[in-house]
Structures are given as structure tokens and as C-alpha cells.
Amino acid sequence: MRQSGQLSLPAAGLLASVGVILTYAEMPLPFMPPFMKIDLSDVPAVIGLFSMGLPAAAFITAVKDILHLFVSESLGIGEICNFLVSLTYLTAYRFSAGPSRALGCAAAILAMTAAAAFLNAAVLLPLYFAAFHIDEAQLLAITRAAGSPALTMTDYLLMVVVPFNLIKGAAIAAASALLWKKIAPYFEKEH
Q1: pLDDT for residue 97
Q2: Residue 103: enclosing H or E segment and its boundaries?
Q3: Which residues make Cβ contacts (< 8 Å) with residue 102, sequence separation at least 6?
Q4: Is pLDDT of 2 > 60?
Q5: How many CA atoms lie within 13 Å of 28's alpha carbon, on the beta-carbon side?
Q6: Of residues 73 and 174, which shows the higher confidence score?
Q7: Are 47 and 3 within 8 A, CB to CB?
Q8: Are 47 and 180 in contact (CB under 8 A)?
Q9: Distances in whole angstroms, Cα of residue 88 to Cα of each of 9, 28, 53, 114, 177
């Protein structure tokens, strides 16, 4: 993974802006509750990771999530968890890649999925239940209405949260790799 290690504010700002725009291009997945949609808004942060390093990627993610607060319906809960899960993905990618981008990609996807499962169980779901006055039974009913057989919160984590994040992580990795092949020469000219 080539990194200059220098944060370029114009490039980071542009990538953060693209990330914000990509938050609006959401795709629902079959058998997932309607509020769980995949977006590729972390792809610009991965590009920032490849081109400028982990601090720049974290900056891009933070700016994207802060700007998304203005249109969010999650009271900031989703943005905080998204930032933490994205940062886990980026950090795992950075420190696991070594000479193999495929190894970094696999580590990032697994770390992201584990972080999402933990954060959902320990932080996100309890906060959502309190903030939106819903309970486990209501969440599971919404999930079953979407076609998932989840009957318990453990089922929800294993049948919804884990597959969702595996799919999202793989989509981010694939899109980032394809895009990086096209734009890497531009970044190499800049440094």
C-alpha cells in the first residue's frame, strides 16, 4: 500500500465531499430490515488511506459523518457507530496489508464485521431502543417482516448484522480496488 503520509486538505476535503454524496446512494438488501441499506460512502476514505495514510482516512471519515449529522434521523447514534466501524476497517486494512492488499482487505472486512456486531450489541441497539422507544420484540418483528428468520437478539446479530457488514465490507473493498486502479496514477503524480 503506497502512502505519502501527508494530509492534503484539498484532496481530503474533496474525498470527504464525495463520501457525503455517496451516503445518499443507498441500496437495500433482501432479507434485511428496511433501515439497513448499503452505501459506498467509505470508499473515499479507503482512497485516502491508499494515497495519504491512516490519519487522512480518519479525517475523511470524520468529516463525512459530521456532515451527515445535519440530515440524519438517528440522533447521531448511527454516525458515531459508523465512524467507529469505519475506523476499525481502515485501521485493520492499514496494519494488515503489508505486501498483500488482499490480506489487508480480508482483515478489514472481518474487523469491521466484529466491531459492528460488538457495537450493535453493546451500544447501538440499547441507544436506539432508548431514543426511539422501541424494544427487542419490535426490532425482531421488523426484521422477520423483511424475511429474516431471526427470533432472538443473538439471531439478529448473526443473521442480520454479521452478513450485512460482510457484504458491505466486500462491496467497499471491491469498489475501492477498482477505483484505485483508475486514479492511482493521479496521486503518484501529485507526490
Answers
A1: 67
A2: helix 101-119
A3: none
A4: no
A5: 8
A6: 174
A7: no
A8: yes
A9: 22, 23, 14, 9, 18
**CA pair distance 21, 64, nearest whole angstrom:** 9
pLDDT tens for each residue of 9-58? 888 999 999 999 999 999 999 889 998 999 999 999 999 999 999 999 99
CA dist., res. 120 & res. 112, Å (int): 12
- Which cell numbers in the block locate residue 172? 467497499
The closest alpha carbon to 67, from 20, 135, 122, 134, belongs to 20
User: Each residue of 72-131: pLDDT tens digit?
Assistant: 888 889 899 999 999 999 999 998 866 677 888 999 999 999 999 999 999 999 999 999
Q: How far is CA 150 from CA 23, 32, 145, 177, in A?
A: 27, 10, 10, 33
Q: How many residues does the chain have?
A: 191
Enter the C-alpha cell of residue 23.
Answer: 451516503
CB 41 within 8 A of CB 23: yes
